[in-house]
Amino acid sequence: MLSNQVIQKVIQDMKAISGLDCSIWNAKAECLAMTSIMPKGVGKKIASFMERAVRQDISEHIGKDEGLFLVAEDETPVYAIFLQGNSADIGMAGRFGVSQIKGLMQAYRERMDKNRFMQNLILDNMLLVDIYNQAKKMRIPVEQRRVVFLVEPKGEEDNLVLEMMRGLYANGTKDFVTAVDETHVILVKALESTEGYAEVDRMAKTMIDTLSMEAMVAVRVSYGTIVEELKEVSRSYKEASMALEVGRVFYVERKLLAYNELGIGRLIHQLPGSLCEMFLHEVFTGEDATRFDDEELATVYTFFENNLNISETARQLFVHRNTLVYRLEKIQKKTGLDVRKFDDALTFKIAMMVEDHLRHIRGK
Question: What is the DSSP letter of 261?
Fold first, then answer.
C-alpha cells in the first residue's frame, strides 16, 4: 500500500493540473486523502461504486460534475478516485490519476521485491542459482564492489533511522537499505573501483554525524570487508554484525567499528567459554577477575594507555608517584603479575579482555 504522503501528493498534482477537487478512498470506502471537504454521502457512493465495479466489471462512472474511477491490482479493487467540479475533462483527469497511482504501486511493488531479495541474500536464505536468476530479473548488477554497513540506534528510534537512511542512500538503483530485525538498519553500499577502506570509513563517519545532527539520534555503525560479487554480500553483513558484537564487549566507547580493525578483540571473541575459564584460572590462580575494584582498574588501564609510564600516569590520575606504585604492587600481590613489566602487562590486559568475553557469554 502507498503511504498517505504519496497519495496526498498525487491528488494535489491532480488538482493543480485539472482544477478539480479530488479525494482517494481505500477498498473499505475510507477516505485516505482529500483536497477539500467532501460533501455528505460520498462515502456511500464510493462503497456502492466498489461493489458495482466487482460485480459488473466496470472501472469508472462519470456523472454531472463528478467522476468515480477504480484503481485495481490483479482485478482486486485497491483505491477509488473521486473527482468533483465543472469540467469537460473530468474523465481524462480521472484516467490520468488512475495511471499515476498504478505506476506508483508498480514502483512500490518492485522496491518491496528488491527489499525481500536483499533480506534473503543477507541471511543466506537463497541458493546460488536463485541469486543470479533473481538479480537478473531485477536488473541488479552481480559483479559490483559492495560493502555492508550496520547501523545500531542507541534508543528506540530505529524506524526513524530506517526512513532517514532510505532517504539518504536508497534513491538510486545501486544501494539498498533494509532491516532484518527491529534493532538494526542495514545499508548495502555500492562502491566505485577507486574507493577503498579509507572512503568506507569516511562514509561511516558521515552516517554517524548526519543521523546525530539531522535526526538527533545517537548510533553505532559497523562495516564488514569489501566484496566483489553479489553472492558475497552475506559475508560482509556477518562481519559487520560480528564487529558490533565485539564492540559491545571490548570497545564500548567506540561509535565506529570496522571488522578489519578489531585487533585482538576479534580473536578473543571466537574463544569458547571452557578455554576462557581455563586461561583465567591459570592467570588469576583460581580467583575471579571481578575482585578488582574500580580504583585499581582505572589505575592499571591508565597505566597501559600511557605505555607503562609511571610519571605520566601519576600526573593524569593526580596522585603521587609512590601512591601509584603502591596500587600497582597491590595488583601484583593479588595476581602475581607485575604490570610494570611488558610481558606481565600484556598477560593482564588479555586476561581482562577474556574475562569480559566470558561475562558476555554467560550473559547470553
Answer: G
**Which residue segment(s) compose the domain that 312 sits in?**
271-363
Asked, for residue 112, whether it belongs to a domain, the answer is no
Answer whether 180's CB lies under 8 Å from 122's CB: yes
* CATH number, position 295: 1.10.10.2840
Q: Is 155 helix (H, G, I), strand (E, B) or coil?
A: coil
Q: In angstroms, rounded to a whole number, what is the distance separating the alpha carbons of residues 282 and 123?
A: 39
Residue 113: enclosing H or E segment and its boundaries? helix 90-122
Burial classification of residue 213, based on how many CB atoms lie within 10 Å of its CB (0-12 exposed, 13-18 middle, 19 or more buried): exposed
**Does one domain contain both 222 and 286?**
no
- Run of H or E including 8: helix 4-18
Number of residues written out for the chain? 364
Q: Is the pTM of this model over 0.85?
A: no
Q: Could you read off the pLDDT of 13-46 as tens digits, one per residue?
A: 888 888 898 999 998 888 898 988 877 888 888 8
The edge-to-edge listing of strands for the beta sheet with 66-73 is 31-34, 21-26, 76-84, 66-73, 60-63
